[in-house]
Amino acid sequence: MVRVFLGGILVGETKKPKTLVNSFREQRRKGILSPEANITYLEDIDEIRIDVEDSRLRRPLIIVKNGEPLLTEVHLKRILKSELNLDTLVKEGVVEYLDAEEEENAYIAITPEEIVDEHTHLELNPTVILGISASMVPFAAHNRSDRINYGAKMMSQSLGVYAVNYLLRPDTKAYSLNYTQHPIVDTVMYKSNFLNEHPQGQNVVIAIMPYKGYNMEDAIIFNKKSIERGVFRSLFFRTYGTREKKYWGIESDEIGIPDESVKNFKTKEDYKLLDEDGIAPPEVEVNGGNIIIGKVSPLRFYGPVEEFFSETENRRDTSLSIKLGESGVIDRVILTQTESGDKFVKSTLREMRIPEVGDKFATRYGQKGVIGAIVPEEDMPFTKDGIVPDVIVNPLAIPSRMTIGQIMELMYGKAAALSGKVVDGTTFNETPEEEIKKTLEQFGFDSVGREELYNGETGEKLTSQILIGPCYYQALYHMVRDKYFMRARGPTTILTRQPTEGKAREGGLRFGEMEKDCLLAYGAALTLKERFSSDETEIPLCKDCGVVAVDNQMKGISYCPICNKTNIVRIKTSYAFKLALDEIISMGLYPKLNVEEEV
Asked: Are 428 and 170 in contact (CB under 8 A)?
């Protein structure tokens, strides 16, 4: 007996499972049963599962009977005349939706040509095997699967016009590419997707060749003139916000220029960008650390007497400033109020981002890299027609990744640019290669897009032919300006007195064991004396007991807490070591230090 489950609940058993399943599917196709229901026969565990729940991922497939698809030429003609749609085909029993479980019982053909008698279904289009992101990668069938995953991931990190009203939206953090373009080698998904109106890259001319070693390890070379003309120029927006919060009693925050008598008041110079209302106006240039919204808040933890006073000495400065490392122009200021009626101010910073060495870029094939050098146009290689590439990519990036689609895009892109027509690179359905070769030859080019290039510095012809052509490139939001950080002096933590950690807190860069080994290997061991003294401190030590002594600063004497003697010596050590001694003592242990005078 085979158990039958409906929505996970046992509803009966059957001795003829295949008959039941086939009958169920026939009735569903005739419209007697709901097209939303799916049935699966799992022979290995003798179970039939009928699923009718929500939130199941289902996809349409053409039904195949006796080796023939039920979708005929008549249907196709009616679809082109808009007489039929997908819902009508489902009602007629030509197309049905399968979920992941029912696909276990299906034998699906990719194309009509490969259908045999055993097939149960046919794909509407081979491209629908892929998801939305992956189907936007042209020529995916010519690449390794992991590269398609990378390519799809890079698309989600690329800059573009993420919303038409981005100039009105107060997004916390946003990037927008200035001059977006539609790819000249696209896929069906671009035409049917909102990306047709929201492109996320630009078509640039790339050459696959080495250049003085500056593009080794996936680095890319950029043409300086291309950047000056506006290639991959983008805007960065950051929104800062604060509100006048009301506290219990009569206390509340106050947005305005702080008075000199409030606590934490900086200098008058720090508030110079603020208007009379305490808010920096639009189109004012600001840098990291500049105050853009002045604000005063009451001190917390009032006693019973002070709670009735709200003089300036009982208030502190809580003004909002630009994050360190960011700069730009105040783009817009929004004054509104919260649900509770508090005044709310939002100020958006706008910064123009121009590509620089270290910024990350990627193609749609997972070929990602950072700018290794920006070269003047006159030093770049050029073709006999005077075409200078915008980007130079290292040839070693291709064979190990097996991204043949990248090479095909250069070839197809070149044909598209010459013919003035966008070329279809949809996976499994791309324009035939022979047509592209004919187009290239027709315009007097090599059939695969290679050309002879000349050295921009010497004018000599390069010995090898170089593959050069247009390619859709994407600027990613991983910009070096957001990542790099340095400091000399700065804040330290209270507990260990060592530098704080992280860029946001102006932290130090940890110089660890392996970095130390590098200095030793270079013979620069003396440098370590200052490298490892970020928390150097001087502590009094009892020469007899070997414990940290007590400094009585009122009387100006030091004595041992154990023997009360004043046989004290002062030693220099790390504060973290002194902290460790204190923690050991707190556990009831007696750490003794034996000190000797240096000879």
From this structure: no
